[in-house]
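User: I'm curious what two different proteins look like when written out as structure tokens. Can you demonstrate?

Assistant: Sure. I'll show them one after the other, since each token string lines up with its own sequence. Here's the first protein:
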Amino acid sequence: MSHESAPQAHHAHGHEAGHGSFRGYMIGFVLSIVLTAIPFWLVMGGVLDSKLFTAVLVMGIGVVQIVVHMVYFLHMNPRSEGGWTLMALIFTLVIVGIALAGSLWVMHHLNANMMPMTHEMMKNMP
């Protein structure tokens, strides 16, 4: 009967968990603040002329922020848990992609089909 400790047994089977450091948490925190401030500035400041490009840029920054949270706060990397956390990251990116694309599709069709207004209709509104 083996009397190895739980951490030794855990590492012996190749399930190395990622552990955060103060530096790692601070990098994640600063990146989170920056990745929140940039879309706010883009939208509230009207920085870009194209609303479509602004929306795509904000969504892209949102995806980057999700990855930052997963890497710096959930400690996902290709080495821990035998690579399963990397698979979880890929799964998350696929789900987020589907959710973003579906949300844009629904919003576009609601705007196109539920709000058919011409300039003449707008003039006659109270």
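Here's a second, unrelated protein for contrast:
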Amino acid sequence: MVDQTAHLALPFLAPSQAQKHVTHNEALRRLDGLVQLAVESVDAVSPPGSPVEGERYLLGLSPTGAWAGQGGDLAVYADGAWWFATPEIGWLAFDKASETLLVRKAPGWTSV
């Protein structure tokens, strides 16, 4: 049996699972980071020194520091730590820095 959703990787609750709130809260955290996606910047390569809760960045190909090894992913700062998601073809994101709507295509993020 699959333990998460296909596109957003939201965790499923198991019938006999103890502490179901942990799994449910993880799903809410992921939804909050992925839905209505507006990012601070695109092609970011180094994490900010003092990230703010909820900040999101589309990473460049060779990020450093806490983002090392996550090239091309979405970085979300929540609960004092970074978590990452791999964007799929068709995702939309608003780049706050350039005030541009972007779409994820095979070659990468493109202005709509």
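A detail about the second structure: The longest strand covers residues 100-105.
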